[in-house]
Design brief:
Blueprint lengths: L1 H12 L7 H31 L2 H25 L31 H13 L10 H7 L4 H11 L5 H17 L9 H7 L5 H12 L3 H10 L1
Amino acid sequence: MAFAIHAQWLAWRNRQGDLVEPRRQARTVFVVSVGLIILWLLGSEIVGRATDELALSGMASAAGLFMGAFVITALLFGLRHPEAFPTALPRATGDDTVPEAVASPEPLDATLGQSLARMMTQDRAYRDPELTIGTIAARVETPEYRVRRHINGGLGYRNVSDYLNEHRIAEVRSALADPAQADVPILTIAMDAGFGSLVMFNRVFKERLGETPSAFRRRHLDG
């Protein structure tokens, strides 16, 4: 039961930042399905022990597990579409610019794109570690679903974290390669760029650039 509840939490915790609508809906169905399975198993066990009909309660539990597993399997089968599980973002290139779009499967909203670009490049809103899709939508005065569609369908990012981390990494890379900031601790640079923890920063940095921040700084400053 603890594992099942933990699975529910994992599925639900990042729902707000998920930009893929079918996957966001699937998270809700998954959490509800697992919750119903837990309640059914508990109810069957309690009734079986109270009435001494353990065999019958065991059959009821098995039937509930079968139906729940069937629903979850059907749900996951429906998510096989590439929109639900798109390919990973390409690693950052050698320059320090932030790409305008990773992919463009849908037409871009020019006005919204300009507002988001201004918010990220001029206001550097990504420096706020608590920034959410709701906050972004409120600041650009656009419905949240349109912002989700633009960042995911227009720019090609899987979730809000990928979108924000793209800008954060660009700032960090620039700072690490700057001789004037050679004495600034990497932790300070990462936190200033909006990363909430050093562990998350190191993981994202290495995933995107293929090396650690210290190795990146050493390579650029030595060069």
